[in-house]
Amino acid sequence: MGYNAWFQCINGCPGEYSLLEVIYRCPTCGDLLEVQHDVDALRTRSAAAWMQLFDDRYRRNTYPYGSGVWGKKEWVVPFVDNENIVSMYEGSSNLLWADRYGKQIHVEDLWIKQCGNSHTGSFKDLGMTVLVSVVKQMMADGVPIDAVACASSGDTSAALAAYCAFAGIPAVVLLPKNKVSIAQLVQPLANGALVLSLDTDFDGCMAVVQEITNDKRIYLANSMNSLRIEGQKTVAIEIVQQFDWEVPDWIVIPGGNLGNVHALGQGLALMHELGLIQRLPRICLAQAERANPLYRSFQEDFKRFEPITAQPTLAMSIQIGNPVSYKRAIRTLQRFNGVVEQASEQELADEVARADRTGMFNCPHTGVALAALRKLVDRKVIRSHERVVVISTAHGLKFADQKAAYHMGTLADVRPSHRNVPVELTADARQVARAISRHVERARLLV
Predict the structure, then answer these.
(1) N- or C-end of the chain: fewer Cβ atoms within 10 A?
(2) Against a cut of 0.90, is the pTM above it?
(3) Is residue 267 part of a domain?
(4) Predicted confidence (pLDDT) per residue in 298-335, tens digit
(5) What is the CA radius of gyration of the chain?
(6) In-domain check, residue 46
(7) Is 169 helix (H, G, I), strand (E, B) or coil?
């Protein structure tokens, strides 16, 4: 159908750049680029026809369209050859109806988008399938690329290593030493990436990876590369699709490097522009109190933004004080009448535990989003009757050691209000029966 997409400066500088070109910043102003689509060409298909096409492809087995990302190929990177698409059928993650937890916090219609139910256990798969597919297309076209590299606070490295391993492309990941979970460290090691553990934080790793990728033979995989955004924006499209093309009232998103809030905004804006939806939801961006530069900016109505030195937080994947996508995030929040809220270590740890008690198994970043949601509900910014979707960014199993420490009472600066520890007994049926009776009685009191 002749659909097309290209890079363009986020500030509107003149110039269009091929998605198959090794370029990350505007040559004129030095700011970030973003992907633009030929919307006029996309309008040649009606909104109803787009919805029907996406529904027909959803979770089907015709490669690559059964992927939650590549089922929207025309809206992502339309010209990549299917044989160069590197997909492990990412996306199509479930919307969990958090009915019991919602009642506890007085939200009648609460849903959790479980983006961690993906190949490497996080939403980063959605962007990485796009980026690595474009790299494979570039290599097939003769562009000399030796490796793909990223700085990571955990999940990006896992996604990059897995998709590069699947494609047979060398991967290089820069991790802040002792600042990722064991599970997040094991993932890129297992997939054969070159793992460089640097004695710095994420922002320091980000500075180094930008320097080494000045060599165009090493391709940059961080979210300042907007190919990642194109994959991640499909989360927003998929949420609306799962509600039979109805828009929720609120989406709550944990944020670190801030690419994800922009990504979801891009997906929603494109649906609105093409007539698939008639209104836009509001967005809450949730940050850890110890890594909260956007929250601080929001307190001043975004009149200025100042990077900070992020402090250690349980939400280690968003321990970022100098996010590269802050301009894009601010513009998204302004367009979507958005708010920014923060969560302390105590608040995020307790909120994870509360939600887990209702059947979830959340990562600490989801805990940040849930704690922010609770605050907004308490202040009546979010009303009890409104439909709310919380983005869960990673699987809780990546942080099992942190959960164990919470329940054992060994997390620094956290008093575990909802701890649950094993009851040690002898192998005596009467003792076991008494323990069960006490447990049942406590459960009745909590209802």
Answers:
(1) C
(2) yes
(3) yes
(4) 999 999 999 999 999 999 889 999 998 999 999 999 99
(5) 22
(6) no
(7) coil
